[in-house]
Amino acid sequence: MASLLRKPVSTTGKLHDITPENAGWQYVGFTLYTLAPGDRISDATGPREALLVIVEGKAEIAVGGRSMGVLGERLRVFDRTKPWSVYAPNGVDWTCTATTACTLAVCTAPGSGGHPARVIGPDDVARVTRGVGSNTRHIHTLAMEDSDVADSLLVTEVFTPAGHWSSYPPHRHDEDDFPRITYLEETYYHRLDPAQGFGFQRVWTEDGALDETMAVHDGDVVLVPKGYHPCGAPHGYEMYYLNVMAGPLRKWRFQNHPDHTWIAQRDAG
């Protein structure tokens, strides 16, 4: 199995380039760039759709030769404001020109031509708080199933306060058995504040075939091909992550670990 913990390969330019081929799965791709003002990158979506998420900074994005405008307000991810994104369908070219220092995430999955290119602005993004106590976290739903903006992609970002847990109680979405559960591959792009911090993420299956616990640092990506996958932020360090999910059905249905589902039942009451 491919390594689940991916470190940035550089400090500028292309930091991550996760493809179905090098991840050892079928659906999710994730590329990350850090750009200086004036830097320009371009690519073609080919058979895949893309959500271009401006994680930090400002940039002009064009899709199919049409400018979508100069977008972005959040200069620092831990400002916690909602981001700007652009959806690019399969079969088009896109370009991104940074107007400030910029971090751009390119989230991809198989496309079927079902949705047009569009801007997804802060007004299109819901802010949701989940959990109670030290399980509280704050979510921006960029492209989840309640928004009909993509063919395959499900994308969200999460802010986990210092000392809290996230993606918890442990849950999995690794079977194609809708409506009970759906098969979704997933990536976690982690950031920490302050940046010298660390967090933890465990990915495991009940049969023990997969069981990895990883220390994650600012800029790391964790792959979740299957199994349960909670993460935790130590005291003093806030954790952010950008999730990309995709599978054969654009639905998010999961099962909690049977040993820990009592936590969700208690907190729901």
Can you tell me about this structure?
This protein has helices spanning 20-23, 261-268, and strands spanning 5-6, 13-18, 29-35, 40-44, 48-56, 59-63, 66-71, 84-88, 93-98, 102-110, 118-120, 126-130, 137-143, 154-160, 165-166, 171-172, 174-177, 181-183, 185-193, 198-204, 211-217, 221-224, 231-232, 238-246, 255-256. The protein is mostly beta strands and 269 residues long. The protein has a single domain (5-268), classed as Jelly Rolls, CATH 2.60.120.10. It has a 7-stranded antiparallel β-sheet with strand order 1-22-19-24-14-13-12, with no helix packed on it. Strands 2-3-10-5-8-11 form a 6-stranded antiparallel β-sheet. The radius of gyration is 18 Å and the shape is globular. The mean pLDDT is 97.
Number of helices: 2
Number of strands: 25
Low-pLDDT sequence parts: none
Q: Rough shape? A: globular
CATH topology tier name: Jelly Rolls
What's the overall average pLDDT, rounded? 97
Widest sheet: strand ordering: 1-22-19-24-14-13-12
The ordered H/E elements are: EEHEEEEEEEEEEEEEEEEEEEEEEEH
As an assembly, this protein is single chain
Structural class from helices and strands? Answer: mainly beta
Gross CATH architecture:
Sandwich
Q: In short, what is this structure?
A:
The chain is mostly beta strands and 269 residues long.
Q: Could you name the key traits of this structure?
A:
single chain, 269 residues, mainly beta, Jelly Rolls, seven-stranded antiparallel sheet, six-stranded antiparallel sheet, 2 helices, globular
